[in-house]
Amino acid sequence: MVQLEQRDRPGAQEWVPARPSLTSIRAALPDCRGCELYQHATQAVMGEGPVRAALVLLGEQPGDREDREGHPFVGPAGRVLDDALEDVGLDRNEVYLTNVVKHFRYKPGPGKRRMHEPPGRVHVAACGPWLKAEFATLKPTGVVLLGATAGKAVYGSKFRVGEVRGTLVDWPDSFEVTAPPDWVLPTTHPSAVLRADDRDAAYAGLVADLRVAAEALR
């Protein structure tokens, strides 16, 4: 296995616009060489949604479909999320959807399949400047953290979804943003529904958590 050195993961800061806007971030993101993931991904996947969205949904990384199409949450997990948002009365077009890591990390599977591989802490750290740039532009009322990777990116390595899922917690002082959201709601990633032995129960849990966020926005 090839060992990567720090110079192979310089971090994204060099490519992030000095005065970020969603437009300038979108223009700059394709050139990012902050870590090695760009070498094999089809493209970087930018967040999408209104700049003044009251709610941000933060996930882990693009999947296979997202990598091919260039949009977040358009694969199987995205369809689960769409259904859950509809069930709690939230319009996907009125929320901002993004991921902690902007390139798809995968390993070869059977045939030509590309199997999802979770990003490591080094990838989350390297991509962190993009997430901070997005939040420098966004000023949401609330943020939903979809899964452990999103939670650890915001709160640090000791974060555990199961300890706080479905509850409203404060944005951490350690993650400085221009306008901290009023609250954060951690929950599981919608892909966990697809992996669950009891999908109905897992989906019901996701819906229940998102309903807390929906009520907090009203």
Short description:
With 218 residues, the protein is an alpha/beta fold.
Give your account of this protein's structure.
The protein has helices at 22-28, 64-69, 76-87, 121-137, 148-155, 161-164, 191-195, 199-217, and strands at residues 55-59, 96-99, 106-108, 114-116, 142-146, 183-187. The chain has 218 residues and is α/β, with parallel strands linked by helices. It has a single domain, classed as Uracil-DNA Glycosylase, subunit E (3-Layer(aba) Sandwich). The chain has a four-stranded parallel sheet. Strands 3-4 form a two-stranded antiparallel ribbon. A hairpin with a 5-residue loop joins strand 3 (106-108) and strand 4 (114-116). The chain is globular, with a radius of gyration of 17 Å. The chain starts with 21 loop residues before the first helix and ends with a helix. The model has no long low-confidence stretch (mean pLDDT 95).
Q: Biggest sheet, strands in spatial order?
A: 2-1-5-6
The portion of residues forming beta strands comes to 5-15%
Radius of gyration from the CA trace? Answer: 17 Å
- Listing every helix as H and every strand as E from the N terminus to the C terminus, the arrangement reads HEHHEEEHEHHEHH
What ranges have pLDDT less than 50 throughout 5 or more consecutive residues?
none
Please give the largest β-sheet: 4 strands, parallel
Structural class: alpha/beta
Output the CATH homologous superfamily. Uracil-DNA glycosylase-like domain
Molecular shape = globular
**Helical residue percent?**
25-40%
- When the domains are counted, the total is 1
What's the quaternary structure here?
single chain
The level 1 CATH classification is Alpha Beta
What name is given to the CATH topology? Answer: Uracil-DNA Glycosylase, subunit E
List the total number of helices: 8
SS elements, strand count? 6
Q: Kindly report how far apart the N and C termini lie.
A: 51 Å
Mean pLDDT: 95
